[in-house]
Design goal:
single chain; about 350 residues; Methylamine Dehydrogenase, Chain H; Immunoglobulin-like; four-stranded antiparallel sheet
Amino acid sequence: MKTSDDGTNWNDVYLGNQILSGFTFINSSIGYAVGDSGTIIKTNNGGSSWVLLPRITNHAFLDVCFPTIDTGYIVGKDFDNQCGIILKTTDGGSNWTFLSTSSTPLFGSVFFINSQVGWVVGSAIIKTTDGGNSWIPYGTNYSYLWDVDFANNNIGFIVGENGLILRTTDAGENWSVLPSGVANALMAVESVDSNIVYACGRFGIILSTEDAGNTWTPQWSGTYKDLCTINFSGPNTGFAAGYYGTILKTDNGGGFPVDVNYRPSVESCINVCPNPSTDKITIEISEKELSGHIEIIDVRGNVVINKEFRGGRIHCNISPLKTGIYVLKAVSENQVQFGKFIKE
C-alpha cells in the first residue's frame, strides 16, 4: 500500500504474489523490498510500480538496508541448513554477492550507519566495520532478536523475545539490558533521536521512552494484532503496521494512536458482557463447540488469568484485576480468537 497524504488515504500497489518481509527507501523515489524465495523488487518512482530483480537464490530474505544509493545489504535464512545469510550490492541491486561470516546464526534484521559500518541481529549480534568483509560476534545467548536501530554512530537499540531491549552507547562494543516491563515479544524498534525511542510487538504493544531507554511507557495502540514495524518522521508523527493489514498512525507521540486502516479478521470473534465491568464478565466465543484455554493479558503483555473452557460461554471473576484495558485470547485446537474489555 502507498500513501501520498501522510497516511490519510492508502492505495493498493500490486507487487505480485510474493510474501514480502522487509522494505527500505533511499529517497522519495528509490526503494527496495525483499521476501520469500529470494524475492527482491525495486521501485524508481516512489512505489507506483515495482520491478522484480533477477533471483539469485531461493532462500528467505527478511530485511534490507541501503546506507547509500548504490550499496545495500540483505539478510535472511537458509532454512535447509538452519543458518543465516547476508548479501551485498554495490551497484544499486543489479548484482549481489554472498558475504561470509564466521558463525551461522539466524539473521532477521540489518542496519548500517554508512556503507562500511553495520550490525546484523537474529539469534546473535554481529558487526562489521569494513563493509561486510569481516564480522565480529557480540553475543549468541539470545532466544531471538527481532530488530536493530541506531540513533547515531554510538547509540543503538535492539529488541527481541520476552520484552527484551538492549542498548549500546559505544557503537555496539557493549550491550546492556533495559527494563521494558513487558513480556511480549518486541518486533521492531525506531530511534527518533538518542532519547526518544519507540518499540512495538505482539498483541499490539507499543512502548516509548524519552530518556534513552532508562524507563519505558506502554501505550495502548487500539489493536491486539501483532505490530511488526514502526517508523517516525519526528517526535510526534509515526506509523506502526502489522498483521491483517493493520496500519496505525499517531500525531501526538503515541498518546492516542489513530487507526488509519484496519481490516477486520475473522479471528476477532469474542464478545464480553458487561463491558466495562468491575467484578464478573461473561465471555462468548463464536464457535459454541470449541474447547481450549483462554488468557487474559494486561497492557504490559503479562498473562494475568489463564483458565480452561469447553463450549462457547465462559464466566470469569475479574475483581482481583487492576483497572485498565485487557486483551482476551482464546486458544483452541484449530484457531485463536481475540477480544478486549475494560476493568473499572
